[in-house]
Amino acid sequence: MSKAEALENLKKLLERESDYRKAMKCVQAIGKLEPTIDGDFKHLEQLSVSDEHNMVRSAAVEVLGKYHAERLVPVLEWIVKNEQSLVVLWEAYHTISLYLTRKRTKEQTNAKISAL
User: Fold this and answer.
1) How do residues 34-62 score in pLDDT, each as one tens digit?
2) Can you give the residue ranges of every domain in the chain?
3) Is residue 18 within a helix (H) or strand (E), and if so which, with residue range?
4) What single-letter DSSP state applies at residue 1?
5) 3-115 — its CATH code?
6) Is the entire prediction scored with pTM above 0.90?
7) d(CA 103, CA 72)
8) What is the dihedral of CA 70, 73, 76, 82, to 10 degrees?
9) SS (H, E, C) 24-83
10) pLDDT digit string, tens, across residues 68-93
C-alpha cells in the first residue's frame, strides 16, 4: 500500500470513528505519514476547528503545526479567538511558539549565509 493510499484509508476511518481515542490515534498515524498535500491539510484543518472532541482537535493542530505551520496561521488565529478547550489552546500556543522559533532560526541562518 502506498503512502497516499494509507492516508486516504486513515481519513476514511477517521470519518467513521466515534471513539475519540481511536480518532486521535488515526490523526497521529496521519501525522507519522507526513501529510503534505492540499487535501490532507484541508482535512486536518477541518478537524482542528470542528471535531466534537478536544483531544482530536488538539492532535490535528499538532500534526498541522509540524507539516503546514505557515499555512496554519489563520486557523491558529481562529482557534485563539474561539476555542474553549485549554488542551486545544495550549497546543495552538505550542505550535505558534515552535513556528516562530523555526522562522527566527531560518532568518538567522540566512543572515549568516549572506554575510559570507
Assistant:
1) 887 878 888 999 999 999 999 999 999 99
2) 3-115
3) none
4) -
5) 1.25.10
6) no
7) 14
8) -160
9) HHHHHHHHHCCCCCHHHHHHHHHHHHHCCCHHHHHHHHHHHHHHCHHHHHHHHHHHHHHC
10) 878 888 999 999 999 999 999 999 99
